[in-house]
Amino acid sequence: xxxxxxxxxxxxxxxxxxxxxxxxxxxxxxxxxxxxxxxxxxxxxxxxxxxxxxxxxxxxxxxxxxxxxxxxxxxxxxxxxxxxxxxxxxxxxxxxxxxxxxxxxxxxxxxxxxxxxxxxxxxxxxxxxxxxxxxxxxxxxxxxxxxxxxxxxxxxxxxxxxxxxxxxxxxxxxxxxxxxxxxxxxxxxxxxxxxxxxxxxxxx
Length: 204
Prior knowledge:
Radius of gyration: 20 Å
Oligomer: single chain
Strand order of the largest sheet: 1-2-3
Number of domains: 2
Mean pLDDT: 80
Number of helices: 7
């Protein structure tokens, strides 16, 4: 995963330029998805399901606002400390306009912490087992509000389906389960769809 390290080398002005480009692209895609929803008939079950799916896609596409997330390496925290990191950026932030400060907040839609970095490395390792014809499953759990759904949205956003000449390649399928836990029918549906990696938390 490509990240920008929140250390002395980070150029806030350059970061803002990237955030502005990502936000413009997100607005364009979100408007297209919104138009698709407006054309659906809310009285038909199939179209209600389609609207629910589009709503999930819109939520995940918000990760476009932070294509390259910020990360704070443990080594930086140990060497600089939180107070020194604040001092490093205070001067750059002081020169920002109110609009630029609001734009900067997009950086915190998804922040790659040390724990999430370890989790992402583990998932990446598990996914490589496919090359050996093996399958692996794991359970992602934790307290509410820890960022499980946000991380899964980020993971799916970075492994979107690709239309190929002979097939559609879907690296990861995210299914919105109606219950707090996916039942047998939901899991069977995922496998029937050619699922390779199935991830769930309390809502997914």
